[in-house]
Amino acid sequence: MELKTTPTPVQDIITTVVSSLKQNDTFTPMFYTLSALLLLSLFLLFKLLLAASRSRHVRLPPGPRALPLLGNLLDLDPELHSHFATLAQTHGPIYKLHLGNKLGIVITSPALAREVLKENDVVFANRDVPVAGRVGTQGGHDVVWTPYGPEWRMLRKVCVLKMLSNTTLDSVYGLRRREVRETVGYFYSRVGSEVNVGEQMFLTILNVITSMLWGGTLDGAQERESLGTEFRQAVSEMTDLLGKPNLSDFYPGLARFDLQGVRRQMIGLTQRFNGIFDKMIGQRSLKMKKEREDGGESKSKDFLQFLLELKDEENSNTPFTMVHVKALLMDMVIGGSDTSSNAIEFSMAEIMNQPEIMNKAQQELETVVGKDNIVEESHIHKLPYLQAVMKETLRLHPVLPMLVPHCPSETCTVGGYTVPKGSRVFINVWATQRDPSIWENPLKFDPERFYNNTKWDFSGSDFEYFPFGSGRRICAGIAMAERMVLYSLATFLHSFDWKLPRGEKMDLSEKFGIVLKKKIPLVAIPTPRLSDPTLYE
Known about the structure:
- A three-stranded mixed β-sheet has the order 1-2-8, covered by helices on one side. The protein has a three-stranded antiparallel β-sheet with strand order 4-12-9.
- The chain is globular, with a radius of gyration of 27 Å.
- The N terminus is likely disordered.
- It has two domains: about 55 residues; about 325 residues, CATH 1.10.630.10.
- By secondary structure, the chain is mainly α.
- Strand 10 and strand 11 form a beta hairpin.
């Protein structure tokens, strides 16, 4: 929106001062210094008056009072998902926040989420890329942060068709089964002892993903525990940095100073992962070269080999480079491991907190699988109550509590208010899925609300329940997340009973980040349920 302006009194004053300086050459250096300061002050005043004039011509959403320069930054609570939900109770389902030089718009209602993610999907299909996101993904050339356009469509197609399609996931069921059975064996070796459930879930999924990417896993109990802990810590630090308010994002002019050290920390973490990626890429490139020289071809190709072959093709309209290769590997390792493992950890915690839910889930498993058998993925579609458990977990604890922030490519209207081009738009799905006007007894973990209920799914078509987002930028990994979470939950509930260590109480509190985490890790004690020890091999 362009506004025509006429000269203001401030402009007249500036013009007069400048003219005087040009006509008079007898002033002292001190006068010039004071004059420069006066001009700067007048210029800033002019900018403020102009901004105020423009704001009167547009209808921005309401919002809390903001301080000059700082805006609302000092008022932000670290737990942004719940803090933003509280602000919505005062300011309504759409409100603005002044985040330094950045305007934030927070959406907390199904109707407004529909306007953003469906009715104006193309306009809001871009991202407001933070410094941490740009550094962590080779400059933002990945499927999460790349602007909407040919490059993004190419990257999403690569992920969805070659890595995350149902056909591909069916073909690597053996990998998932092997790793889940490996974890069952680990739990069985720790019967009667405490185990960190989230850590083991993370390691299981990491091994599945790295097997799909380049065929590598962590073997041996000691290596599983030590490297798994190291990997999880690194991934956790990366997702924390992605969700951390950063002055460099709110004041781009300060980005080069990296006042909070976010860029420096992210560079260090990215280099650790790039070291692994470089090693795997080097090994695979040599293998591919040798196969070409021998005139042979791989009988089976993993995702890394497919990416390297795609990079070498020259007939693509949108070039696929080594930068894209590493960025997509990072997407898979970070996006696939931390999200699903946290969902499983929250599920196990909520189930353990209500023994009747665990009993019902285990009874369903006994009916479908039997106590003289092990769970297979083919059983999952026959377990509607367990599916309801997963849906309820993602209602109460959505993996991305505010999705990934959107950024309109042009100024538009949402809910009758102006949302300026370049704003950072937060969709608070966490708050929407706990809205008492939508959900009965919303803070209670109750799978019955989803049991044999086909109204809600993961497609993003219903904006009362959309834990994976909606529209063009909906999560590409829904199919894999659904398989990993359900298969893991079914196996571990079927194989073991679970209880907290003596004297411990369940803590279900959350820790905000771009990925929602359990604030206190779930430590539990497994007890075998199956009478035949060979079923734990």
